[in-house]
Amino acid sequence: MSDDTGTTGDATDRVRAHVFVSGRVQGVFYRANTRDAARERGVDGWVRNLDDGRVEAVFEGSRDAVEELVEWCHTGSPSALVEDVAVEHGEPDGEEGFTIRR
Question: For residue 3, is pLDDT > 70?
Fold first, then answer.
């Protein structure tokens, strides 16, 4: 009996959250803290600043880890002042790793 390469079962258990965070969230290490928080939870995806002052992120992983990270976004980095977190759920796209996009 040989194991499959990769993670069997995880793909069907994965969820995706597309998040938009508004408030004082740029210039306060929000992206770096998001990356660190995602990696600690084993969540894949990316985060970036938007021209309108918001931060946009995509999280893919287990339901519990993604939901925990979305909750984390309501506070974010210690210097952030989060006003709103809007979340859109969808089908995972197969994100791997977690990066900061510029």
Answer: no
